[in-house]
Specification:
mainly alpha, 3 helices, elongated
Length: 66
């Protein structure tokens, strides 16, 4: 038992909402690309560029289907 009870609790509420499912699915689609799944790029800027390209490719498929 703690000596003092805490005044507040800091927690991540992201696991309580529907958005977690959307985020997990987005990462699933992005990880189809080998460079993103294995984090092959050493530089953060190169990795971010790969994420942008993969996201654009995914978005184009979605827009084209609509």
């Amino acid at each position: 038992m703690p000596e003092r009870t805490p005044d507040a609790l800091l927690a991540d509420k992201g696991y309580d909402y529907r958005q977690r499912n959307r985020i997990e699915r987005m990462f699933g689609h992005l990880k189809v690309n080998r460079g993103i799944a294995t984090r092959y790029d050493q530089l953060a800027s190169s990795f971010l560029g790969m994420v942008h390209l993969a996201t654009a490719r995914y978005w184009l498929k979605f827009v084209h289907a609509a």
